[in-house]
Each structure stands twice: as C-alpha cells, then as structure tokens.
Predict the 3D structure of the following.
Amino acid sequence: MAVADRARIINEFLGSLHVFYSAVNELIEEQLRVDLKGELTIAQLKLLKLVAAANIESISDVATFCRVSNAAASKSVDRLVRRGLVRRIESSNDRRVTHLSTTDEGNALLERYESVQNQVLDGLFRQFMPSDFVQTTKLLDRLSADIVDLETGPQELCFRCGIYFRDSCLLREVVKRTCYYYLHRPSHNGQPPESLPAPDDQTHGPDRTNNTSG
C-alpha cells in the first residue's frame, strides 16, 4: 500500500477516535449538568475524582493534572475545600506537603457522578458485547504504548489516563512510565501514606512486539 493511502486511512482512524471521544464526553457532561444541577463544574468534578483516587501531596501535582499554574490549582482546591467536598491537611514536617482527601459529602457527590455516567454509557453501548470493547481496548493500548515509547522522559509523572485510572496499564507495565495514580494509591487505613515505590519487576506485562492476536 502506498504511503499516501496508508496515511489517509490512519487519518480517518484518528478522526473517528476524536469524534467518538468528543461525542461521548459531551453527552456525559451535558447529562451531568442536568442531574447535578450545576453544583460543580466539570473541571471541579474531575479534580474531585483525582483527589478521591490518589493521595495528593502537593498543589503542583494538582497543577500538573489540570495543566494549569500552581496558583490556579491552589484556587481550584480552595473552592472545593470551602464547599466542604475536600479536606486539606498541611504537613507539620514539610510546608511543601499538603495532603488532600475527599470528605463524606465529596464522596457522596462522586457516587452521584458515577451513577449518571454509568447510566449514560449503558444506554449508549447496550447493543455492543463486552468482548467488542475488550478487543478494541487491546488494540488501542498497543498503539498508545508504541507511540509513547518514542517519547523521552519516562521519569516524569504520567497523567495520560486522566480520570480513567486502570490497575493494568501498558504505559506503566511495558513502556515503564511513572504513573501518578499507582504511586499515590490511598492506603487501606485511610491515612495519607508516603509515596509508594514503583514496582521492581513488571515483566509480567504483555509483549507488544509478539502480541498480534489483539
């Protein structure tokens, strides 16, 4: 196949992915605005979900996730704290460390968020079999891992999954990217733990070079 023809097909594939993500995301966000009655903006909901999923230890981590300045990230956190959705605890040993966690009210709001999202997704994709999504996920994961592997700086914190953290991730297991969520998973006792070390051996991850079955 000629390079131009192959490029055209790839561009159509990328365009299809973009339209799919945009359409689904916009539908979910619109339903959230209706059901949550404007209690929070979408950006605030995403930040709240980040706090619930990981032990935040600095405002700079929030800034990296939100792709904003430290000052803007601090203001976003302040708003959630004032709303009683997030609890902020300053470290007595290190002024640079700020532990963030969700309150009961914040967790209740996230449960409503998850319920709305699940209902929308179930209605959209009810006609498809779970196996369809599993196979497509495997393909997209392999493509993503190949692309990210070309980049430098694996030591930098990775937030590529956004609010869709998964326990199994090729970027972490095969391409050795430093996953923020994996390093800052909440401890079982509910206390802010120290950052967890990266796994010593991740050779159990799938082999991208030999895995062609999808």
In short: Residues 188-214 have pLDDT under 50 and may be disordered.
